[in-house]
Give the backbone structure.
Amino acid sequence: MAGPAWETPDAFLQLDDFATLATVTPREGVSRDIRGIFDEPYFNTQIGEYEADAAQPRLTCKASDVADLSAKDGVEIDGRSYLLVTGPQADGTGFAVLILAAVD
C-alpha cells in the first residue's frame, strides 16, 4: 500500500502544484534543471540599538537531485542568480534544503 503523496518527493514536487523549476550549476559539472519549492523568509533582528533586515532564500528539493552540489555552486530561480551558502542539507526523508545567497 502506497503512503500519502507527500511521502514521495517526485509526487510532492509537481510543477503545477507547489514546485518551481530551478537550474543548478555545479562548479565541476553541467547545468541541469531540478524541481523545488522556493521560499524567501524575511528576518528582522535587533542587536542593541541596531536593526538588520535580511532575507534567507532557500530551495527545498529532492536530495538525490542535489547530492553532488556544494557551497558556492550556482542556482538560478525565476531569472535570479544565487550561490549555495553550504552544501545541501538533507533531512532524512528524501528532501534537502539549499540555503542560498543572492548574487547582485
Q: What stands out?
A: The first helix runs from residue 9 to 12. The first strand starts at residue 20 and ends at 25.
